Amino acid sequence: MKMPPIPMPDENGFFGEYGGQFIPPELKSVMDEITAAYLEIRDSAAFQHELHELQSTYIGRPSPLFYAKRLSEHLGGARIFLKREDLNHTGAHKINHCIGEALLAKHMGKKKVLAETGAGQHGVALATACALVGIPCEIHMGQVDIEKEHPNVTKMKILGCKLVAVTRGTATLKDAVDSAFEAYLQDPVNSIYAIGSVVGPHPFPMMVRDFQQVVGEEARAQFLALEGRLPTRITACVGGGSNAMGLFTAFLDDEDVQIVGVEPAGHGLDTPDHAATLTLGAPGVLHGFKCYNLQDAQGNPLPVYSIASGLDYPGVGPQHCFLKDIKRVDYATATDQECLDAFMTLSRMEGIIPALESAHAVAYAMREAPAMGRDQTILVNLSGRGDKDADFVAARLGL
User: Fold this and answer.
1) Per-residue burial over 284-299, b = 16 or more CB atoms within 10 Å of its CB, e = otherwise
2) Catalytic residues
3) Taking residues 150-179, what's their average pLDDT?
4) What confidence score (pLDDT) does residue 213 get?
5) Ordered strands of the 112-117 beta sheet
6) Could you tell me the maximum CA-CA distance found in the chain, to the nearest angstrom?
7) CB 195 within 8 A of CB 203
8) Given the DSSP bridges, would you call strands 377-382 and 233-237 parallel, antiparallel or unpaired?
9) Region of residue 9 (left: phi > 0; alpha: psi -120 to 50; beta: else)
10) Which residues face 330 on adjacent strands?
């Protein structure tokens, strides 16, 4: 059954009470310029034609929908399907919005693109897109993640981007965001900050969602063609939340489809070592927008942790916050151990090595499927492949 559509965001970039622009006054005109430029190209037939052509001939869309038969039979219960974003050029969903952001930068005549990266997937995808359109690219990455995600670091250097190692704080994703944003503030007129998720000040949560919604649009049509009906449940991992928002958007009006985002529980929700923002966070302002975030008694962002570098962020996209509050989307968690178990199980049962980020959603599906009926289905957004994580997991498990 179809629900009435929910218009999001409003003209000020708010999803309910979340989102907006909590930025220095000198950045207001810059963000308004980006908003106007994006709305102009979004409605441009020439831009849409160029984007769709690159999605087909460069990214490799549509990505396939795969029935994980052996995994489903092993678990019993619901049948599990995977939306194979791991097969995109650069190995993840990130290329979907990076191509869009690079084209926007080109349209605006920007001289440089800045960004942060955690696991390196956004960094690789943006460096790829900037190489494609011929714009210099600078990526800020935490030193911890540089050491953990060495294959992606090498790719970024080969692609020609300037890599800035961030050593302050926890030297992970939150600190990389801080560093990149500070660099952007030095010259916001000639550069553009290509945010890597559905976070940040307006228009980025809207813009990244729009570029990512191709995932859900494809998946919905593919599932209907394959099964003749919509899935019982859809799920995706949630850090900032771009891959999840990309999948969820096409199904928000389908009230018979249960939607579940999966956050990293790390070492456990009873420890400080997690990044379960929507599960345990509270509303506050972070990185120029209002969202649920993990914070101390003074309202400062807490250090966060996940085995998946792309999920260890103390905030989350404002649309996710709104969808949680209106109870359209449920948010669950998966621990590091569940993630590792899912990583190895999917690898050995289906010959698909998932990114550690995506393995959180696989872990949720593995946990839930046995209690569901065989006539029910779970669609998982397999947001990225695990090449970048293979050495880390092998060392962790002693393989």
Assistant:
1) bebbbbbbbbbbeeee
2) 94, 116, 383
3) 92
4) 97
5) 162-166, 137-142, 112-117, 191-193
6) 57
7) no
8) parallel
9) beta
10) 260
